Amino acid sequence: AQTVTQSQPEMSVQEAETVTLSCTYDTSENNYYLFWYKQPPSRQMILVIRQEAYKQQNATENRFSVNFQKAAKSFSLKISDSQLGDTAMYFCAFMRGGATNKLIFGTGTLLAVQP
Amino acid sequence: EAGVAQSPRYKIIEKRQSVAFWCNPISGHATLYWYQQILGQGPKLLIQFQNNGVVDDSQLPKDRFSAERLKGVDSTLKIQPAKLEDSAVYLCASMGGPDEQYFGPGTRLTVT
């Protein structure tokens, strides 16, 4: 069975600085996807960034980038130039490729961006 | 493009009562998911539909939870009778392509 672990329950960062959120996962699959979702107090899950396991290049989306270490089964999220609107719960998630493609989530990291 | 719609946004019921949640996925999305998110935890899959057929309901407490997706579009999730431990946010998501799920705003259920 696949598992996702986020070892940082809470983190804090000053506005405009950089922060890295950690995630590790366990799987024996070769075909899978990894995601970071943001969940603000409104509860809406918003996709931040995705990574296909077969791609060696790390994904980037504007201020958000990942460090995907496939052999170590590590998938960290770096947020550059943090903004107050980045304050939210961040969930790391795993999805196996194929028909039964449910998301398996970690327990989340609460990020607070301080002014 | 309209997003995933859910209703109601909030519901408070007493234990042993019944409740139903509704989800309308993004138009054309064949796959629909219901997740349960207990406070302080990540969402966990309850049931996955492909069109109107069930793909995975292994984590659905079938003695009290039921779900259907008539005509492969809207879906309803029902709890009867509710227990205190069912207090959670219920998230609906849909997927059209191979790798991205779009989530609705969720329904916060409080069982007293």
Give structural notes:
The complex is a heterodimer of chains A (115) and B (112). Chain A has no helices and twelve strands. Chain A is 0% helix and 53% strand. In chain A, a hairpin with a 6-residue loop joins strand 5 (32-39) and strand 6. In chain A, the strands form three sheets. In chain A, strands 2, 5, 6, 10, 11 and 12 form a six-stranded mixed beta sheet that branches. With 112 residues, chain B is mainly beta. Helices cover 0% and strands 49% of the residues of chain B. Chain B has strands spanning 5-7, 10-13, 19-24, 31-37, 44-50, 53-56, 65-68, 75-79, 88-95, 102-103, 107-111. In chain B, strands 2, 4, 5, 6, 9, 10 and 11 form a seven-stranded mixed beta sheet that branches. In chain B, strands 1-3-8-7 form a four-stranded antiparallel beta sheet, with no helix packed on it. The chains are: A mainly beta (115), B mainly beta (112).
Major beta sheet summary of chain A: 6 strands, mixed
Report, as a whole number of angstroms, the end-to-end distance of chain A: 41 Å
Q: Biggest interface, and residues per chain?
A: A-B, 24 and 27 residues
Enumerate the spans of chain B where pLDDT stays under 50 for 5 or more consecutive residues: none
Unreliable sequence segments of chain A: none
Helix count of chain A equals 0
Radius of gyration of chain A: 14 Å
Mean of residue pLDDT values of chain B: 93
Write the layout of secondary structure elements.
The complex is a heterodimer of chains A (115) and B (112).
Chain A: E1 3-5, E2 10-14, E3 19-21, E4 24-26, E5 32-39, E6 46-52, E7 60-61, E8 64-69, E9 74-79, E10 88-96, E11 103-105, E12 109-114
Parallel strand pairs in A: 2-12
Antiparallel strand pairs in A: 1-4, 3-9, 5-6, 5-10, 7-8, 8-9, 10-11, 10-12
Chain B: E1 5-7, E2 10-13, E3 19-24, E4 31-37, E5 44-50, E6 53-56, E7 65-68, E8 75-79, E9 88-95, E10 102-103, E11 107-111
Parallel strand pairs in B: 2-11
Antiparallel strand pairs in B: 1-3, 3-8, 4-5, 4-9, 5-6, 7-8, 9-10, 9-11
